[in-house]
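Action item from last meeting closed. Structure (491 res):
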């Protein structure tokens, strides 16, 4: 097997920085690729938020200067190398751009940093310049989401005649098409490209704005998303295509979907170091004990015969919180308890707190980001609710399967591809899947499940079907290697 030189670029990578599923993927997939014997370099920004202890072994490799539209900026390159693998994590450092208390947003204004265009132009140009300095010629540059969109774009524009990259191909993975990297048209000059490239319906222009994701869809050698269904949905649905379905359809032949995997070292109930009691599909007593501990910790009464519904999510429209709001009163009338962990839009914070105040014995709302609690909830809950409007892949439904927490999901994107609709009487399936984005359908799915909670044998059969599923990264990583090879040989 020919070893590939793979450069994987991402704006967030576990354990260094995370706001969502992209970080989980970026912390795991490249490592699995290195384990398969490839040379892998991961690039991410050196944020001020990264825990200092994680960087204590970082080696400062070089200092260089990147020309930006407002003058030269210094780039410091740091690296952490793995002792056992051809696997390096590189950090693009510049305190002015990245030494801030948040990844993308200004806490003072609650809005995106106004110079996010400069920050990620610097990041992408920085990577390409640094590669030459460290003499790493990638066979594949794998870019992820809009923050790295300029990698495939620059390769086909600014660096198109650069011999160093003559053999380098690019892949652009869309983890969420809704975040496109939109900036005022005047930001285009900051890219330092020929002005003629910015024209109505061209690779960069989007309703009089600059759209970085659009440019990557135009220029990348191949494009993929994180599930097969989402790959189809973004080409066929006006809503999910988010204005880019035309560009995606033009590239139809080059668009595909590969489902994300799970890091089962972190997310499996028999190994999980964060949960109070471990368990497995053959011994579930730790799940019951974890529920008792969780209820104590969060201050809900423990009611053994009542199912606990969990939600862990960004509180965003995407995640189906308007359905939960519509059905909120009806859900609270059911014989259930519920725990919701998440942060996000203010409107949902306020409404959830009000609902909790009315139903203090039934509902606990935790408005924060807390990884340990996320593990505890997966371990303790009986049902996991994920009624997304759209879901490129989704990770929590996969974690839920492993933890015997029966997922109730909407049939969209990765949820449709990973959860098989269950019939408790015949014992098939892994969760409940409702079709339309409709609160009544969601409520009906919850109501269908509830009576089976006391029919332990039937409930456990569906739990076990899910616990036995294997969504580890190896199968998905093989698919990425196939995609890389296809891209390299595509001339
Ligand atoms: P997305 O990337 O769209 O937010 P995913 O389901 O792909 O959704 O991934 C979300 C990841 O973030 C999961 O690992 C989930 O456990 C985690 N997560 C989301 N909200 C929280 C929270 N409030 N506290 C802890 N972890 C969270």
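Sequence:
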């Amino acid at each position: 097997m020919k070893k590939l030189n793979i450069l994987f670029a991402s704006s967030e990578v576990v354990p260094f920085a995370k706001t969502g599923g992209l970080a989980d993927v970026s912390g795991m997939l490249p490592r699995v690729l290195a384990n398969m014997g490839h040379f892998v370099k991961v690039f991410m920004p050196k944020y001020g938020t990264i825990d200092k202890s994680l960087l204590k072994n970082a080696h400062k490799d070089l200092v260089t200067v990147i020309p930006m539209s407002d003058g030269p900026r210094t780039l410091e390159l740091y690296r952490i190398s793995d002792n056992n693998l051809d696997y390096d994590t590189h950090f693009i450092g510049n305190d002015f751009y990245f030494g801030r208390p948040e990844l993308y947003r200004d806490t003072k204004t609650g809005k995106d940093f106004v110079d996010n265009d400069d920050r990620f132009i610097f990041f992408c140009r920085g990577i390409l310049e640094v590669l030459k300095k460290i003499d790493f010629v990638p066979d594949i540059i794998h870019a992820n989401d809009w923050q790295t969109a300029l990698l495939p774009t620059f390769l086909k524009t600014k660096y198109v005649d650069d011999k160093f990259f003559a053999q380098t191909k690019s892949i652009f993975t869309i983890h969420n098409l809704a975040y496109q990297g939109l900036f005022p048209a005047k930001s285009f000059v900051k890219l330092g490209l020929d002005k003629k490239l910015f024209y109505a319906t061209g690779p960069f222009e989007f309703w009089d704005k600059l759209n970085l994701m659009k440019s990557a869809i135009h220029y990348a050698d191949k494009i993929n998303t994180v599930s097969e269904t989402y790959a189809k949905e973004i080409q066929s649905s006006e809503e999910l295509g988010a204005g880019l379905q035309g560009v995606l359809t033009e590239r139809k032949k080059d668009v595909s979907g590969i489902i994300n995997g799970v890091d089962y070292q972190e997310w499996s109930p028999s190994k999980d170091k964060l949960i109070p009691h471990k368990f497995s599909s053959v011994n579930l007593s730790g799940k019951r004990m974890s529920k008792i501990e969780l209820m104590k910790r969060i201050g809900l009464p423990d009611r053994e015969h009542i199912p606990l519904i969990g939600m862990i999510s960004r509180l965003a429209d995407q995640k189906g919180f308007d359905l939960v709001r519509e059905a909120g009163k009806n859900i609270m009338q059911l014989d259930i308890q519920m725990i919701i962990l998440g942060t996000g839009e203010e409107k949902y914070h306020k409404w959830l707190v009000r609902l909790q105040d009315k139903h203090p014995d039934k509902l606990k709302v935790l408005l924060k980001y807390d990884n340990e609690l996320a593990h505890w909830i997966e371990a303790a809950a009986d049902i996991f609710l994920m009624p997304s409007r759209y879901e490129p892949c989704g990770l929590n439904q996969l974690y839920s399967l492993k933890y015997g927490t029966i997922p109730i999901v909407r049939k969209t994107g990765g949820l449709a591809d990973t959860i098989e609709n269950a019939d408790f009487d015949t014992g098939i399936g892994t969760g409940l899947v409702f079709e339309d984005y409709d609160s009544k359908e969601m409520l009906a799915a919850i109501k269908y499940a509830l009576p089976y909670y006391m029919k332990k044998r039937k409930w456990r059969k569906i739990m076990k079907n899910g616990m036995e599923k294997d969504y580890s990264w190896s199968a998905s990583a093989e698919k990425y290697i196939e995609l890389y090879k296809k891209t390299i040989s595509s001339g």
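Note appended to the action item: The first helix runs from residue 21 to 35.
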